[in-house]
Design a protein that fits this description.
This protein is an alpha+beta fold. Among the domains are: 9-302, Beta-galactosidase, Chain A, domain 5, CATH 2.70.98.60; 630-733, Golgi alpha-mannosidase II (Immunoglobulin-like). Helix 7 packs parallel to helix 9 and helix 10 runs parallel beside helix 11. The chain is globular. It starts with 8 loop residues before the first helix and ends with a strand. The structure holds (2R,3S,4R,5S)-2-(hydroxymethyl)piperidine-3,4,5-triol (DGJ). Residues 330, 360-361, 408, 476, 478, 526, 528-529, 545, 548 line the site of (2R,3S,4R,5S)-2-(hydroxymethyl)piperidine-3,4,5-triol.
Length: 735
C-alpha cells in the first residue's frame, strides 16, 4: 500500500478529536479524479494539511480517519505537510508563500476559510479553497482543476491583498504537495543546445533537491520544468507508482523536492523567486501559473498516456486536429537564398508530397543585412536583394506550385547591429552601465514594455495582413537573458525584480492577442530546440521543436524522453543530413512524431527520392494513429541494443510499431520477441512492414495472423539487426 506512514499532524488531530473538542470543525477535502485522490484536512487551529495522495478510495468518508493511524511524533521542530506552507510563524519548513507586508513585517499564517467545487462538465470540476492570514489582510485561494477521466490535476493559486498599501511577494508557489512512501526516485532532465532532455534518475535523500531555471527567455535550455517521480522503487513502463509533473510557465521556474525529517516528501513548485520579488498593490491579485500532474499506480506508460490524452483534448492548440508535413530550407540553404532558389525548393516540396514549404531565417533586413546571425535581427522588412518582389510574391509562387507557405520569425530578439536597436535602444534588456553580453550575437527585447508587446504583435500581424495565405509560423527564440534590466520598468517607476515575471506575462499577452485574431494558424514553438517547451506556451502553439540535433540516433533517445510529457503530434521531427545513418533510418525516426524535411531534395539520388516520396505517402496513411493514438514505449534504448515503441488507435484496430537498432556490436538486435501492448486480446491481427527502401524485402512473415493475446503475451520480433537497423510495422485487425 502506498500510504505506509502518516504525517505528524495526525497524532495531534487524533488527540484533539479524541477529546471531542474541535471534532466538528475538522473539514476533509478530497480532490478526486477517476482513479486518484489528493485529500486535505483542517486541524484544530484551522490550518490545512495534506493527509493523503494516492489511489482513490471507494468510500470518501474513510479519508478522514487516515491521520489517526500515524505514529510520527511531532517534537515541535515543524509541521511539514501544509497544503500551502506560510513562513515566519509556526512553520520553519521551506515555504510556498513568503510575504513582506505593507508595514515591513515578514510573517504569514494561513487558515482555512471556506471551499467550494464548481462543475464545468461531466469530466471537469474546479475546487477552490480560501485561506486567510488571521492577522494581515492577505488571502490565498488554492485552485485544483480536475480532469477526471485523464487523471490530471491542474493546480494554481491566487494571492490577494487587502492591505492598505503594497506588499511584496518573496515566494509565491503554484503548488505545495506532500507524499508518503518508502523511498522517492526523481527523474529530471539536463542538457544544453543539441543535447536536450538528457535524463537522470536519482534516489532523493534528506534535504532539498532543487530543479530550476534562471535563464529568463529560452528558460529550458539547461533544464525543462518537467519530471517523473516514482514512489517506493523506480517505476517501469507498466509497473509502479509514479507522478508526472510539469509547470506551465515559459520563464524561470523552481521546484523544491524536500525529503523531510520523517522521510516524507514535500514538493513546492512554481515560478522561480530568484531576483523576482513581486509587488502586489492593495486589492490586487497575483495568479500563479499552473502546475500540472498526473499519477498512476501502473507505471510510466499509463501516466504519460494520461497526460497525452489531457494535452490533446484540453491544452495544445488544435490538439485533436491535424498537422502539416513540411519542407524547411534552414539546413538546405542557411542564409543563402533568393527567389529563384526558393521557387525551386517549392517545386521540390511539391514533388516530395509535403503540405507546406517553410522559409527560415534570413529573409529580412536591409541596412544591416541578415546574411549570418550577426546582424539584422529586429528589422522585419523583406531583404530587397534576396526577395525583390517580397513575401507576397513567394506566397503566390508557392500557391501556384500547389504547396502552402510558412515563415520563420524571432520577434522577441534584436541584434545590436540593426536599425531596431539604433532606433529603440530603450526596448532592449541590458544593464545601462555594464558591457553587453550576448548569446548568438543577440539580446532579448523588453517584453514587459507594452510598446514592445505591440511591436512583437505587429511583426506577425503585418505578415498575416499583407499575406493572408501564410499558413504556418515558426517562432524562434535563441538567447537567454543576461544582464536582466528593464529600461521600461525603470521609467515607469516599477521594480526591476518584476522583469522575469512581466516578460513572460508580456509574451502571453502578445500570444493571446495573436490567437484572438488568428485562432487557427499552426505555429511551431522553436527556441533553438527545446529552449521553451511547456504547457502554457502550448496553449498558443500547435507543436514544438525538440532540438536542433536531428541526428536520428540522438533523436531516438530525446524523442523517447519528451514522449513522457508531450504527445507525438506536438513533436516536430525533421529528416536532415545530421548523423551517419541512412536516409531510411532518418526518415523512420522522424515519422514517430510530426514529420518534416530539411534536406536538399534535388541532391537525392533516384532511389532516395523514390523512397522519400513513398515515405510521405506512407506517413499520411499512419499519421492519424501516431498523432491521436495511445503510445506504448516497449523496449528502452537506454537499456537495450534497440528501441521499440508503438502507437495504437483508440479502437485497437490498427497500430504502428517503430523499432531501431542503437548499438552496432556483433549480433546486436532483436533476437527474441518482445511484448506488444495496446491491442485487443481477442482480436486477430496481421502485420505488414512499412517504409521499405526500394528493392529491399521484409524479413517478417506478412501472411500470418496473430491474436492480440499472442502479441501481448509472447510478443513479436521485428527482426531488427545490423542489416535492418530500423523498421516500421503496421498492425491491422485481420478481417
Ligand atoms: C534555431 C532553430 O532551431 C533552427 O531550426 C533555425 O530556425 C535557426 N534558429 C535559424 O536561425
Amino acid at each position: 500500500m502506498f500510504l505506509k506512514k502518516i504525517q505528524i499532524i495526525a497524532l495531534f488531530m487524533f488527540a484533539v478529536a479524541g477529546n471531542h473538542v474541535f471534532a466538528q470543525n475538522i473539514i476533509t477535502i478530497p480532490i478526486e479524479t477517476r482513479e486518484n485522490a489528493l485529500v486535505m484536512q483542517t486541524d484544530a487551529d484551522n490550518h490545512l494539511f495534506i493527509i493523503y495522495f494516492g489511489k482513490k478510495l471507494s468510500q470518501t468518508s474513510e479519508y478522514q480517519s487516515i491521520p489517526a493511524q500515524s505514529t510520527q511524533h511531532d517534537d515541535n521542530s515543524g509541521i511539514h505537510n501544509s497544503a500551502y506552507t506560510p513562513s515566519g510563524t509556526w512553520s520553519i519548513s521551506e515555504p510556498a508563500l513568503q510575504v513582506t507586508h505593507a508595514d515591513g513585517n515578514k510573517s504569514s499564517d494561513l487558515v482555512y476559510v471556506s471551499h467550494k467545487t464548481t462543475k464545468e462538465n461531466d469530466n471537469i470540476s474546479v475546487t477552490s479553497i480560501i485561506l486567510k492570514d488571521p492577522v494581515y489582510q492577505v488571502e490565498v485561494t488554492l485552485f485544483y482543476k480536475i480532469y477526471s477521466n485523464e487523471n490530471v490535476i491542474e493546480q494554481w493559486s491566487n494571492i490577494h491583498s487587502d492591505e492598505k498599501s503594497e506588499i511584496i511577494l518573496q515566494k509565491y508557489a503554484s503548488s505545495n504537495l506532500y507524499f508518503i512512501a518508502k523511498d522517492y526516485y526523481l527523474t529530471h532532465y539536463n542538457g544544453t543546445w543539441a543535447r536536450e532532455m538528457q535524463p537522470e534518475e536519482e534516489q532523493l535523500t534528506a534535504g532539498i533537491r532543487v530543479l530550476d531555471s534562471k535563464l529568463g527567455t529560452r528558460a529550458n535550455l539547461f533544464q525543462p520544468p518537467s519530471f517523473l517521480l516514482s514512489f517506493d522503487k523506480p517505476a517501469s513502463e507498466t509497473e509502479g507508482k509514479v507522478l508526472l509533473g510539469t509547470l506551465a510557465w515559459s520563464g524561470n521556474f523552481r521546484m523544491d523536492f524536500e525529503v523531510d525529517s520523517y522521510h516524507n516528501l514535500r514538493l513546492i513548485a512554481g515560478i522561480n523567486n530568484y531576483a523576482s520579488e513581486y509587488p502586489l498593490a492593495s486589492k490586487q491579485d497575483f495568479k500563479t501559473p499552473s502546475f500540472i500532474y498526473t499519477y498512476s499506480e501502473n507505471g510510466k506508460g499509463e501516466a504519460s498516456r494520461n497526460l497525452h490524452n489531457w494535452a490533446r483534448r484540453y491544452r495544445i492548440l488544435d490538439g485533436e486536429g491535424s498537422r502539416l508535413t513540411l519542407l524547411n530550407n534552414w539546413e538546405a540553404t542557411y542564409f543563402d537564398f533568393n527567389e529563384e532558389k526558393l521557387s525551386a525548393l517549392f517545386k521540390d516540396g511539391k514533388k516530395l508530397g509535403v503540405d507546406l514549404f517553410l522559409l527560415d531565417d534570413g529573409w529580412f533586413a536591409n541596412k544591416y543585412q541578415r546574411n549570418n546571425d550577426k546582424a539584422g535581427l529586429g528589422d522585419w522588412q523583406e531583404n530587397v536583394k534576396k526577395l525583390p518582389n517580397g513575401i507576397g510574391h513567394l506566397v503566390k509562387e508557392a500557391t501556384n506550385t500547389g504547396i502552402k507557405f510558412g515563415i520563420w520569425v524571432e520577434p522577441e530578439m534584436v541584434n545590436p547591429k540593426s536599425e531596431l536597436y539604433e532606433k529603440h535602444p530603450d526596448w532592449v534588456i541590458k544593464q545601462p552601465a555594464r558591457p553587453e553580453h550576448y548569446m548568438r550575437n543577440q539580446l532579448p527585447l523588453d517584453l514587459s514594455n507594452p510598446e514592445v508587446q505591440n511591436f512583437v504583435f505587429g511583426v506577425i500581424d503585418k505578415l498575416f495582413t499583407e499575406n493572408p495565405a501564410i499558413a504556418y509560423i515558426k517562432w524562434d527564440c535563441n538567447a537567454i537573458t543576461f544582464n536582466a534590466y528593464s529600461p521600461y520598468l525603470e521609467k515607469s517607476k516599477q521594480k526591476q525584480s518584476q522583469l522575469y515575471v512581466d516578460y513572460v506575462r508580456g509574451l502571453y499577452k502578445v500570444l493571446e492577442k495573436l490567437r484572438a485574431k488568428y485562432p487557427k494558424v499552426p505555429m511551431m514553438l522553436c527556441s533553438g530546440g527545446g529552449g521553451r517547451v511547456d504547457y502554457e506556451a502550448l496553449k498558443y502553439f500547435t507543436e514544438f521543436w525538440p532540438s536542433d540535433n536531428t541526428d536520428p540516433m540522438e533523436r531516438i533517445f530525446m524523442q523517447w524522453e519528451y514522449s513522457y510529457f508531450f504527445p507525438a503530434l506536438a513533436q516536430s521531427n525533421h529528416v536532415t543530413d545530421w548523423g551517419k545513418q541512412p536516409l531510411k533510418f532518418r526518415t523512420d525516426v522522424a515519422m514517430m512524431g510530426k514529420l518534416g524535411y530539411d534536406i536538399v531534395i534535388s541532391h537525392l539520388n533516384e532511389k532516395d527520392l523514390q523512397f522519400s516520396k513513398q515515405a510521405v505517402s506512407t506517413y499520411n496513411s499512419i499519421k492519424d494513429i501516431v498523432w491521436h493514438g495511445d503510445l506504448f514505449r516497449l523496449v528502452d534504448p537506454k537499456k537495450n541494443d534497440y528501441a521499440a515503441l508503438m502507437f495504437s488507435s483508440k479502437d485497437k484496430k490498427r497500430a504502428v510499431l517503430f523499432s531501431y537498432l542503437v548499438n552496432n556490436r556483433y549480433e546486436a538486435g532483436s533476437d527474441v520477441p518482445f511484448r506488444l501492448q495496446g491491442l485487443e486480446a481477442s482480436k486477430k491481427y496481421r502485420i505488414k512492414e512499412l517504409n521499405l527502401y526500394p528493392e529491399t524485402k521484409t524479413a517478417i512473415k506478412e501472411d500470418q495472423t496473430y491474436s492480440g493475446d499472442y502479441l501481448m503475451t509472447v510478443g513479436f520480433n521485428p527482426m531488427v539487426n545490423t542489416r535492418r537497423t530500423s523498421v516500421i510495422m503496421e498492425i491491422m485487425e485481420a478481417q
